TrEMBL record:
It comes from Crocuta crocuta (Spotted hyena). Required for proper hearing, plays a role in maintaining the integrity of the tectorial membrane. GO terms for cellular component: extracellular region. This is Cell adhesion molecule CEACAM16. Coiled coil: none annotated. One of its GO terms (biological process) is sensory perception of sound. Keywords: Disulfide bond, Glycoprotein, Immunoglobulin domain, Repeat, Secreted, Signal. It is found in: Secreted. Belongs to the immunoglobulin superfamily. CEA family. It comes from the Eukaryota. SMART domains: IG (SM00409), IGc2 (SM00408). Homooligomer; can for homodimers and homotetramers. Interacts with TECTA and TECTB.
Amino acid sequence: WASAAPSGSFSSAAFLRTGADISITPEPAQPAEGDNVTLTVHGLSGEVLAYSWYAGPTLSLTHLVASYIVSTGDETPGPAHTGREAVRPDGGLHIQGALPGHSGTYLLQTLNRQLQTEVGYGHLQVYEMLAQPVVMANNTALVERRDTLRLVCSSPSPAEVRWFFNGEALPIAVRLGQSSDGRALTRHGVRREEAGAYQCEVWNPVSVSRSEPVNLTVYYGPERVAILQDSTTRTGCTIKLDFNTSLTLWCVSQSCPEPEYVWAFNGRALKNGQDHLNISSMTAAQEGTYTCIAKNPKTLLSGSASVVIKLSAAAVAMMIVPVPTKPVEGQDVTLTVQGYPKDLLVYAWYRGPASEPNRLLSQLPSGNWIAGPAHTGREVGFTNCSLLVQKLNLTDAGRYVLKTVTLQGKTETLEVELQVARECV
């Protein structure tokens, strides 16, 4: 610590020696900005004539805060005086409303009656009251395994930084991408489990401040696309339905955001953009493969699942069902045939008993349509044996008979009673 005594402090003729027993401690030990701080001196020996305080590492005039003469109480400010320092009679240095700029090394030089000087030193750290930091993200909506996440904790203070995820301290395993100063997090190929609220916190011994949360969304999927029926997975299965019954299929997947849905029947897209598909009044025409395609507009990925729907064995027996079941005059009605033989050779519809030829409405032998004596011009037959009767009138009510013959010569006769209600006026 030996150096020439600066002008305005002690004479260079004084004997200078390091005060091994002099120590300086701040009170309070960890002051915050704005606190009143006293640098207390310990280990003084003999009768001290004067004190000189320096805010710096050397006994240089530029670092001189103030000199104090004990006998007169006169204090002389130096170049490093900020207007807040005052030397006490016991040698301590009092700082009124200390600021972070007062932090650093302080030297005290004393002069005794033997014109000997001693030097002691101490360190003062004034901690600032920290402003709230801000988390800045390169993007808050990222695609899983494709995008990189970078978070930066912005703060004007050089204080220590720690990170929080969903309100909890960020685990070390997740901090592998942390920068050396702790202020940046980088995650290459971000994962879905890393979506959530991120905060950073700056701290020192007297102050803590945490940022507002930044919410991160990670897009993924669709994955595990499946078709459900009554919460039971049906993907890849065959569902058997009774004739004229209904069914609702649900398409589910793991995806963020919720995917867009497209349904297809036997490879042909249906006009349905919902996550469910309703099948009502099951008939043979609705047998086939139903596919749900889920598309994620953010990841640009898609997935699909399919089921096969067939009429149940119980529905194989042929039957006739009017659609609608209770038509009114003026309406069309279709006498729908369920379970007609697949090896059909010929069928014939009768308006009344099949034993009376004049009752023949129409028949379809080998794909050729033939109108019978009872045909009114309003009846149309189809290859699935169904019969359409257009613009009903009350006289159309009554018994209709269907006769089918298979390639093996098997004959079957069914009948249905059609009711026609009078139109309400």
